[in-house]
Amino acid sequence: MLAEIWTTRDLLDPVTCPTILYVKGHQDRKMACDQLALPAQLNVDADKLAGDYLAAHPAKDNPEVPILPTSGIQLNLAARTISYNMNKMHYAKSYRC
Q1: 24 shares its domain with 49
Q2: How many domains does the chain have?
Q3: What distance in Å separates the CA atoms of residue 42 and residue 70, rounded to the nearest whole number?
Q4: Please, which residues bridge with residue 81 across strands?
Q5: Residue 15: what pLDDT?
Q6: Collapsed DSSP state (helix, strand, coil) of residue 96
Q7: Considering Cα of 7, then 9, then 10, then 12, what sign does the dihedral take?
C-alpha cells in the first residue's frame, strides 16, 4: 500500500502534491489523548474507529488482498495473503498450499 501511495504522489504536480506526515502510533499509551498533538489525536481516533469496525463485524474477513500495480511481491494462499515478512520458516510452519 505504501508503494502505491508514493508512486501516486510522485505523479502529482509538485504544487498540488500533499505533504506526507509520519505520525508515531499508540502515543496514547504513555500520555492522555487530549495532551497529544492533533495529528497524534487523529491517529488515536482512527485506531479506535478501526477497532470498533472490527468488533462490530467479527465475521467479516478479507484474507485475500487485491494485487496493486506497484506490489513488489505478494503470495496468495488458501489461509490468507502474505505481502511482507515472508520468513521461510514461518511460511513452512504456518501456511500450506
Answers
A1: yes
A2: 2
A3: 28
A4: 76
A5: 87
A6: coil
A7: positive
